[in-house]
Amino acid sequence: MPRPITATIHIDAMQHNLARARACAPGAKVWGVLKANGYGHGLERAMRGLAAADGLALVEPDNAVRLRELGWTGPVLLLEGPFDAADIAMMAQYGVNGAIHCDAQLALLEAARPSRPVDVHLKMNTGMNRLGFKPEAFAAAHARLRALPHVGEITLMTHFANADDAAHPRLTLHEQVRRFRAGAQGLPGPVSLSNSAGTLKTLELGDELASHWIRPGIMLYGGTPGGQTAAAFGLKPAMTLASEIISTQDIVAGDCVGYGSRFQADGAMRIGVVACGYADGYPRHAPEGTPVLVDGVRTRLVGRVSMDMLTVDLTHVPGARVGSRVVLWGEGMPIDDVAQASGTIGYELMCALAQRVRVVEG
Ligand SMILES: *Cc1c(COP(=O)(O)O)cnc(C)c1O
Fold first, then answer.
1. Does residue 211 have its Cβ closer than 6 Å to ligand 1?
2. Which residues bind substrate (predicted)?
3. Using an 8 Å Cβ cutoff, are 207 and 186 in contact?
4. Do 114 and 251 belong together in one domain?
5. For the residues 30-50, what does the mean pLDDT come to?
């Protein structure tokens, strides 16, 4: 028998969440973002879950090719664009769109003689200071692209730093949009603005965030970028990580649990040992009190997470025994709650699902 830990991928939840994204931004086309192996859900499974998207976006050139091999015939977008000349040739061969965000990429594209024209996303840096041309350099970069016979459609894009906290004192969403509109003024071409956070904000801000394309990722997998809960937005978890209790221990005041004896009982307790550890992708830094669902009852992690096991408090789950079902995150246990307790984000937990965990669909 394999270890009882299983990640169940809910294809129907991705379909549902994609519909939610569309409802947030009516009229916009949707790039379903499936970088990082579909946020840990598997590239092929994410491709099926997001089959109704208008295009699929990622950052790995080899996986762009893989999408074509898997039969995806719709648009594909490389969010970091090409890394070398071979990637531009690949983009032409496989009909892959790519971001152009810096002078080095522009030069690469100017030197290229691809077999067919390539469509690109010209990216503006509106304050995130990661990728993109400054607003004042944007029109010139656009003109250089327009001068190339082997460049097809040019989409205008930017990326938001704080769409989940739109009034951020250092950089408001409003200011990023203002810079984008100013830098892109008068330039033709479709516009692509929002990630999940921006998409969810579109419900409130409406026209200000209007664009031809949105680029949701995390919301499609049932996580949120921050702020409200996934359930409040009507999103369903696309991954349930579940395992079982494989042992129980009755302990008394003064007894400790696990490595480093981090947890010490101050009274009689029952401890459950779960077949899930950091080598499965559960965060080792999860503190005491991180929520865990046992037999449908919300309880707490106690003691340090070890490689293959973690320990939970069963004192108030009297029916729990060896074989009881434990949900680490997913259905019944929002991944954002686990992430927040552990000082991280749902994105990191999903993406870190380990190779050894058996994956099923359901
Ligand atoms: C990852 C990514 C997204 C999706 O972000 P989420 O927060 O997961 O919605 C959108 N646009 C770009 C450029 C990205 O890199």
1. no
2. 130, 307
3. no
4. no
5. 98
Kindly state whether residue 226 falls inside one of the protein's structural domains.
Answer: no
Report the catalytic residues. 35, 259
Nearest ligand 1 atom to alpha carbon 157: 13
Write down the pLDDT at residue 308. Answer: 98
**Would you state the pLDDT for residue 328?**
98
In a domain, 313, yes or no: yes
The answer to the question of whether 307 is labelled as a binding residue is: yes
Q: Residue 217 C-alpha to ligand 1 middle, in angstroms?
A: 5
Q: Is the CB of 79 under 6 A from ligand 1?
A: yes
Q: Are 125 and 133 in contact (CB under 8 A)?
A: yes
Atom 6, ligand 1: residue with shortest CA distance: 217
Closest ligand 1 atom number to CA of residue 99: 13
Domain that holds residue 128: 11-221
Please choose, from the candidates 17, 3, 16, 9, the residue with its C-alpha nearest in 3D space to the C-alpha of residue 240: 9
Same domain, 20 and 168: yes
Question: Could you tell me if 347 and 246 lie in one domain?
Answer: yes
What's the one-letter identity of residue 39?
Y
Claim: this prediction has a pTM higher than 0.85: yes
Listed in sequence order, the residues at least 6 apart from 258 whose beta carbon sits closer than 8 Å to its beta carbon are 303, 304, 306, 311
Q: What is the CATH number of the domain that holds 354?
A: 2.40.37.10
Number of domains, the chain? 2
The pLDDT of residue 224: 95
Is 130 labeled as ligand-binding?
A: yes
Predicted confidence at residue 228, as pLDDT, reads: 85
In a domain, 107, yes or no: yes
Ligand 1 centroid distance, CA of 52 (Å)? 18
The SS3 call for residue 23 is helix
Mutate-to-test residue for ligand 1 from 14, 20, 33, highest number of ligand atoms within 8 A of CB: 33
Same domain membership, residue 248 and residue 213: no
Is it the case that residue 348 has pLDDT exceeding 80?
Answer: yes
292 CA from centroid of ligand 1 (Å)? 28
163 lines ligand 1 (CB under 6 A): no
Q: How far apart are the first and last CA of the chain?
A: 20
Q: What is the pLDDT of residues 295-319, one digit of tens each?
A: 999 999 999 999 999 999 999 999 9
Q: Examine residue 168 and state whether it is found in any structural domain, yes or no.
A: yes
- State pLDDT tens for residues 167-222: 999 999 999 999 999 999 999 999 999 999 999 999 889 789 999 999 999 999 99
Two tokens at 328? 């680490």
